[in-house]
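User: I'm writing a short report section on ligand binding and want a predicted complex to refer to. Could you take this sequence and adenine and write out the structure as tokens? A short remark afterwards would be nice.
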Amino acid sequence: MNYKIKDIKLAERGVDRIEWAGRNMPVLKMLRERYSETKPLEGTRISACLHVTTETANLMILLKSTGAEVALCASNPLSTQDDTAAALVKKYDIPVFAWHGATRDEYYDHILSSLEVKPNITMDDGADLVSTIHKQKRELLKNIIGGSEETTTGVIRLKSMAKDGALMYPMIAVNDSMTKHFFDNRYGTGQSTLDGILRATNFLIAGSVFTVAGYGWCGKGIAKRADGMGANVIVCEVDPVKALEARMDGFRVMPIAEAAKESDIIVTATGDINVVSESAIGNAKDGIIIANSGHFNVEINVDYLEKNSDSKRIIREQITEYDIFKKKVFLLAEGRLVNLSAAEGHPAMVMDMSFANQFYAAKYLLEKGKTLKRDVYVLPEDIDRTVAADKLETLGIKTDKLTEEQKRYLSSWEIGT
Ligand code: ADE
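Assistant: Sure. The structure tokens for the complex follow:
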């Protein structure tokens, strides 16, 4: 088997850690039990470009046990867990092309290697597989039924490809399933971003001024956790509805250039470019900590920091200190997504639902892919509700059901007061 990883000797530790994550992924376990006899993915070749974590490993094991042949590469050079990669290769016979700290060239070489299986389905977190295939490997298009996309940023990229008529196969926006973004983006990003900041800095959140740029599901999750830990939270938003929501959730709202003057910490979660801009850096309080929780490392203007600093040094693992305009600015994880670079990403308990949706996306593409256009689709609502119901069952939670009388009431317009 062909693979490119850091060190196969790390496998043993990886196997234990994958098992640990698996304990909190009961829906994936349920799907393994439900489908490993019938193998609905039999004969399917899947290239997956996802964060190489213990949670992703459990998805790869599910895909393989339900019949797929998979090859995995990383969706970010800093998020790869080398022991997980080694365990997947050694214990589970799954080819992995990823190591922690890959250079840009190595990163793209790994993507190309993962495409050597000639996929029928692509699985992305940030759309790098889709874009590599469309730009450089168009000969693979003839084999491809469809693909799935994990994250908000990737979905935005795909929608703009579809709008331009450039997208050559149907894509499932897994991110847009309710059982993905309501949970993963909010509770997952909320907790793992704070986890990344704390592991990198050991900074006291209580009493700090903590600014969150972006009040989508991720920003909401981060603000809520920071608030819960006693921070004084400021939200920066461009959308007036979200800005109003932040205000009524109890947060101060202001432009980022203003917020920077008093912030101890700024975190971005917008999916857009140059959010911590020249003016925010120019106004920044001495000693400010800046981190990004968006998918790509474009939200903080690192270039501006680099070009205008008198000096810089690594003051602690994951923290670069910039001496700029006679003050210190501390950048975490080089401006890459802090929750996966300085911590381990979202906890298994939420990835369980996100990755159940990834499994269903592959199954759905096999069943329905040929009827779909070259566009971006959301999984049908009944699949979403199945994931939620399965999760509730694994948590031992029972809920009320509508009575016949209640169903009749909801479907009639004649019954009034
Ligand atoms: N995205 C965010 N957290 C993740 C995790 N733990 N594994 C894979 N992808 C992720």
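A remark for your report: The chain has a mean pLDDT of 97. The pocket of adenine is lined by residues 50-51, 53, 55-56, 188, 340, 345-346, 351 (CB under 6 Å).
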